[in-house]
UniProtKB/TrEMBL annotation:
Keywords: Cell membrane, Glycoprotein, Membrane, Transmembrane, Transmembrane helix. Residues 24-240 form the Anoctamin dimerisation domain. GO terms for molecular function: chloride channel activity; protein dimerization activity. The keyword Cell cycle does not apply. One of its GO terms (cellular component) is plasma membrane. It comes from the Eukaryota. The keyword Cell wall biogenesis/degradation does not apply. The lineage of its organism: Eukaryota, Metazoa, Chordata, Craniata, Vertebrata. This is Anoctamin. It comes from Pygocentrus nattereri. The chain crosses the membrane at residues 254-281, 333-352, 417-445, 465-486, 632-654, 688-707, 796-817. Residues 243-831 form the Anoctamin transmembrane domain. It is a multi-pass membrane protein. It is found in: Cell membrane; Membrane. Belongs to the anoctamin family.
Length: 879
């Protein structure tokens, strides 16, 4: 008898330990679809809310099981496990029009690649790439169970679909009594905000580093980690079907887009690298660079001071190094690469549309967008809209927001966005003022010449470079600070607008955030590219910022403004990517390490599946939004300003190879399992990418024309070269104007001791500056020469020609490539036809059975029923 009792106790312990590591209720049969956690306190209101909410959940058909705090690792937290039985799943699958299989797909695949064996090293096992067979699907109908391929009701709906249905119920379940008609008291989101529950999440199916002990569990998380989330798998294809099955279509679409974007970056990176290599190869063959570095040419040209008082005269050959560096990016290949990127971005967007259409068919998203708009209203919208009106389409009463209230909220929202954009512009002006003030100070410290060199960490720098680098770093810090503050403001004003659907909410937030980020990240680059050095004036008549005497508008680096734009681009782009990866990977890991520090000392059997997930970071509803935003900002950097830095696509490619695996790793190992959600496309980001693509053609044309020295060189080469042969000799001297030193105003004259030792005012009477103006003594003294107007006309002509050529090619390519592949169109039509045919046959067979059953029972078959049957059914019945 005692042995029997000990045996029973051992079975109970084993069962308890098994349940700790499983994703099922204590009975081992009902799967845990969702978990709520809370810490009991003395607040009676929270206890009442939980009691009412859980009672209403049970009324909705959900089954609950509570884990007492004594069973938890910290001894404080209660865990409420939720299971959705078949009846609930079937009901809400019908409500949400979830597509489920009814027939195995019998359309043959014709996607054989002739040289497919070359890609074998990139392939993943078929059970990972295609975890489920391919089916024809149709919207679930709870009255037609036998129409669908239901083998096991417990596994018919994937886990991602189950947690999506449960969250739909939780987000609409009230926590008040039936006699209290306060519709504002509903939804798990409000209960999380007011502290009634501490968290709500679906469970991962197992630990990511080992398979589940339970043979009934799929261990999909383990497969994702093994084949997808590890960095050393960077060269492998992504298991998108498994990602979609485990996390839902919305996350699957993001990784599909990110992977496709990375693939397309490879081609842009190769071409950009070739252009850079061309610049290196022609490093020693540029005539104007040799003239600048020649001591008999550049060494004899005395340049005017670059700032007032603190800057002295300097010789042109002191800019030799920066001129060589500028040539690496400012050469003939720059024009070709700018045109190429205008075409590349079109190909990328058009091919993505095709890829998206194929995924839409394979993932049953073809008709989803209309259903999303029609069915899934945000709970916040339903609770805050007190008015009702008749929907002309559904003929049902639905909540709506009065136009006056909507307009007032939109106006407040717009004013807030404009205020923050103005704040960015003010900060950029502050950075410009810093550049103007610091340049004079640095020039005074570096005494030898205005490009005076100072030994710093083993490298030679100039005042211009030091000012540009420090200003870029300060600007980057301001960018990150403003981002941190504005994110919260953007969410607040979007919540205030009360969007109707989740799609509308995300689109509104996307527009606000991108508009702010666009100005925040790109404004400094726009300043360097299109404003710096363009409004300087000339030595006798300089232009000052806000007419402040010590804030003279800064000139470009002696090597040109393009190299400064490159510096700005590299610092902001690289800094953002490095900081973003630190935030994405290191911070969640540190937080999880700290939160699970106590649990690491406990036996594995006492650390339950829900407690392990509870200790992970929560993947918020904006988690994916920030991932898109990061990549779209990067897309802007490599398209809007790529003419200044052909290596930008290569940097983006290396970052994105890491980004795919970092995002996969953190999602699989560091975050709780997100609630699955559907998405038809990448949403508003698609339109934003198209706008950036169009705008990039304009910006790159202006960069080549006004920031680069390409056009002045071409005009000189074809129109102003000396002699009869086409040559660039004499270009440097031709591009510099002459000014009489005695005419420099006292406010701009260098202070005593600022001029270098070689400068002798009695011998050197003139200095040179970058411009095309008549020399002193000419009848049009210091006014622009005819060459200036020729160059300006050439720049405008280049912009017009380049834009028209690229736009014509873009529109032709967009017209030539259909958005939906022809085989996908055929498959969609085929599936719709089969759905109608099978549904028709199903209804006919069902009616046959009813007629036969009534006939066997001797009941009269009404003519009205017989008239609804097709000819073959009627004939069979009559015989």
């Amino acid at each position: 008898m005692q042995c029997l009792m000990e045996e029973n106790n051992m079975e109970e312990v084993d069962k308890q330990q098994q349940s700790k590591d499983s994703v099922y209720f204590r009975d081992g049969k009902r799967r845990i679809d969702f978990v709520l956690s809370y810490v009991e306190d003395k607040d009676d209101r929270k206890q009442e809310r939980r009691k009412l909410y859980e009672a209403n959940m049970q009324k909705a058909g959900l089954e609950l099981e509570l884990e007492d705090k004594s069973e938890s690792e910290d001894g404080k937290t209660f865990f409420l496990k939720i299971h959705a039985p078949w009846e609930v799943l079937a009901t809400y699958a019908d409500v949400l029009k979830i597509k489920v299989p009814f027939k195995v797909n019998d359309i043959p695949e014709n996607r054989e690649i002739p040289v497919g064996w070359l890609f074998t090293p990139l392939r993943l096992p078929d059970h990972v790439m295609h975890p489920d067979p391919d089916y024809f699907t149709s919207s679930f109908d709870s009255n037609k169970h036998d129409f669908f391929l239901i083998e096991d009701k417990e596994t018919f709906f994937p886990n991602s679909t189950r947690n999506r249905i449960v969250y739909y119920i939780l987000s609409r379940c009230p926590y008040n009594k039936e006699d209290r008609l306060n519709k504002d008291k509903r939804g798990i989101k409000r209960l999380l905000n007011n502290g009634t529950y501490t968290s709500a999440f679906p469970l991962h199916d197992c630990r990511y580093w080992v398979k589940s002990r339970d043979p009934n569990c799929e261990s999909e998380r383990y497969s994702l980690y093994r084949y997808w989330a590890r960095f050393f798998r960077f060269y492998k294809e992504q298991p998108l079907n498994l990602v979609r099955k485990y996390y839902g279509e919305k996350i699957g679409i993001y990784f599909a887009w990110l992977g496709f974007y990375t693939e397309m970056l490879f081609y842009a990176a190769v071409v950009g690298l070739i252009c850079f290599i061309y610049g290196v190869a022609t490093y020693d063959n540029t005539v104007w660079t040799k003239e600048i570095c020649d001591k008999d040419i550049g060494g004899e040209i005395v340049m005017c001071p670059l700032c007032d008082k603190k800057c002295g005269f300097w010789k042109l050959n002191s800019t030799c190094n920066s001129t060589w560096q500028s040539h690496l990016f400012d050469n003939t290949a720059t024009v070709f690469f700018a045109i190429f990127m205008g075409i590349w971005v079109t190909l990328f967007l058009e091919f993505w549309k095709r890829r998206q259409a194929r995924l839409g068919y394979e993932w049953d998203l073809v008709d989803f967008e209309e259903e999303q708009q029609r069915l899934q209203l945000r709970p916040e919208y339903e609770t805050k809209c007190t008015s009702r009106r008749l929907n002309r389409v559904t003929q049902e009463m639905e909540p709506y927001f009065p136009v006056t209230s909507k307009c007032a909220r939109l106006c407040l929202s717009g004013a807030t966005v404009l205020f923050w954009i103005s704040l960015i512009i003010a900060s950029i002006i502050g950075v410009i003022a810093y550049r103007l003030a610091v340049f004079a100070a640095l020039a005074s410290v570096m005494k030898d010449s205005p490009t005076n060199k100072l030994e710093l960490v083993g490298s030679l720098i100039t005042p211009q470079l030091a000012t540009s680098v420090t200003a870029s770093c300060i600007n980057f810090v301001i960018i990150m600070l403003l981002n941190f503050l504005y994110e919260r403001v953007a969410i607040w004003i979007t919540d205030m607008e009360v969007p109707k659907t989740h799609v509308e909410y995300e689109n509104k937030l996307t527009v606000k955030m991108f508009l702010f980020q666009f100005v925040n990240y790109y404004s400094s680059c726009f300043y360097v590219a299109f404003f710096k050095g363009k409004f300087v004036g000339y030595p006798g008549k300089y232009t000052y910022m806000f007419h402040i005497s010590n804030l003279r508008n800064e000139e470009c680096d002696p090597g040109g403004c393009l190299i400064e734009l490159t510096t700005q681009l590299v610092i902001v782009m690289t800094g953002k990517q490095v900081w973003g990866n630190i935030q994405e990977a290191l911070l969640p890991w540190l937080k999880n390490w700290w939160s699970s520090r106590n649990a690491r000392s406990h036996p594995e059997s006492l650390y339950s599946r829900w407690e392990q997930d509870y200790d992970l970071q929560n993947f918020s509803q904006f988690g994916l939004f920030y991932e898109y935003l990061e990549m779209v900002i990067q897309f802007g950097f490599i398209t809007l300003f790529v003419a200044s830095f052909p290596l930008a696509p290569l940097l983006a490619l290396m970052n994105n190879i890491l980004e795919v695996r970092v995002d996969a790793w953190k999602l699989t190992t560091q975050f709780r399992r997100p609630v699955a959600a559907k998405a038809h496309s990448i949403g508003a980001w698609d339109e934003i990418l198209n706008l950036i693509a169009v705008f990039s053609v304009v910006t790159n044309a202006f960069i080549v024309a006004f920031t680069s020295d390409m056009i002045p060189r071409l005009v000189y080469f074809y129109a102003y070269h000396p002699g009869t042969e086409l040559t660039m000799q004499g270009y440097v001297n031709n591009s510099l104007s002459v000014f009489k030193i005695s005419q420099i105003s006292t406010e701009s004259t260098p202070d005593p001791g600022e001029n270098p030792a070689w400068f002798n005012s009695s011998v050197i009477t003139t200095c040179r500056y970058r411009d095309y103006r008549y020399p002193p003594g000419h009848e049009h003294e210091y006014s622009h020469t005819m060459q200036f107007w020729h160059i300006l006309a050439a720049k405008m002509a280049f912009i017009i020609i380049m834009e028209h050529v690229v736009f014509v090619v873009k529109f032709f390519v967009a017209w030539l490539i259909p958005d939906v592949p022809s085989d996908v169109q055929a498959r969609v039509k085929r599936e719709r036809y089969l759905v109608q045919e099978y549904l028709h046959n199903y209804e006919v067979d069902k009616l046959k059975k009813q007629l036969n059953q009534k006939g066997e029972e001797g009941q009269c078959i009404c003519p009205e029923i017989a008239a609804t049957v097709k000819h073959e059914v009627l004939s069979e019945c009559l015989t």
